[in-house]
Design a protein that fits this description.
With 319 residues, the chain is mostly beta strands. Helix content is 4%, strand content 44%. It is globular and about 50 Å long.
Length: 319
């Protein structure tokens, strides 16, 4: 499908390469009051605390049942007691944290690698290694629809309004389908290389994508136009997270820091130092606290096992 110039991203508009600022990206004239205020907050709240898995100080529950690796997990959008897992054992499982038991197992056709829950809680979408995405009714646990794609599917997500379904792919594109019709709406040429991850901001105004070109691009949800990019990382962008108010965007990669930017200007707000590559980042649902997990296998922990550490940034320096 032809893409209008206005809807093209860094690859179509002359991006000069990983780690550099694209000439079309907006640049602010100076730090905003929000940036200055948050920088002042983080100067006094820049402590990072580490939570070790298997530590006696941390209460944990094990959810057993899958016969192969669990590649992704997502929570129910409104019920804090339910989450769903995607596994290479060709099943997805829905779990209840109150009982720590699996309440439903759904068989799928392939080895599952990505999963998401629709904003209305009614549907679960799961993608497998064969680039098939299956839409499952969250109540009946039966397949509602199935789509085979001819490209490498990386991450999948509904928009906040639940009427469009987004996929990032190995060709650097964002593919958008209408929902529930699953008819192609648009294919956006977003990046010159593998488009890895996608996240929607809680306010429903923007979504962001991260790519192997080390760029994060920010898109207007309604216009499907790229409004700015963030170019402070040098390695492929693995993970993204918007803060609860939609004003901050955290992005991470194999770089040994997490970039925190102001969404409206692209200005650097803070840099969280890490000792190793970061796998995932997630803001607290109500506070300026950022959880993240790194690859600690080659660090100060026993390299013979998965370290399983989660770190929390934004705590008071004197805590």
């Amino acid at each position: 499908m032809a893409v209008p110039a206005a809807a093209m991203g860094p690859s179509a508009l002359g991006q000069s390469g990983p780690g550099s600022m694209a000439p079309w990206c907006s640049v602010s004239s100076g730090p905003s009051r929000y940036v200055l205020g948050m920088q002042e907050l983080f100067r006094g709240h820049s402590k990072t605390r580490e939570f070790l898995a298997h530590s006696a100080k941390v209460k944990e529950n094990n959810y057993r049942g899958h016969g192969d690796s669990v590649d992704q997990l997502c929570w129910h959008p409104s019920n804090p007691d339910l989450f769903v897992t995607a596994s290479g054992d060709k099943t997805i499982r829905i779990w209840d944290v109150r009982t720590t038991k699996c309440i439903a197992t759904v068989n799928t056709k392939g080895e599952n690698i990505n999963i998401c829950w629709s904003p209305d809680g009614q549907t679960i979408a799961v993608g497998n290694k064969d680039d098939v995405v299956t839409f499952i009714d969250a109540k009946t646990h039966r397949s509602k629809a199935e789509e085979q794609f001819k490209f490498e599917v990386n991450e999948i997500s509904w928009n906040n309004d639940n009427n469009m379904f987004f996929l990032t792919n190995g060709n650097g594109c964002i593919n958008i389908l209408s929902y529930p019709e699953l008819k192609p709406v648009q294919s956006i040429n977003a990046h010159p290389s593998n488009c890895i991850c996608i996240k929607f901001d809680p306010m429903g105004k923007y979504f962001a994508t991260g790519s192997a070109d080390a760029l994060v691009s920010l898109w207007d949800v309604d216009e499907l136009v790229c409004v700015r990019c963030f170019s402070r990382l040098d390695w492929p962008v693995r993970t993204l997270s918007f803060s609860h108010d939609g004003k901050m965007l955290a992005s991470a990669s194999e770089d040994h820091f997490i970039d925190i930017a102001e969404v409206e200007t692209g200005d650097k707000l803070w840099e969280v130092q890490c000792e190793s590559p970061t796998f995932t980042v997630a803001w607290h649902p109500k506070r300026p606290l950022l959880a993240f997990a790194c690859d600690d296998k080659d660090g100060k922990y026993d390299s013979s096992r998965e370290a399983g550490t989660v770190k929390l940034f934004g705590l008071p320096n004197d805590s």
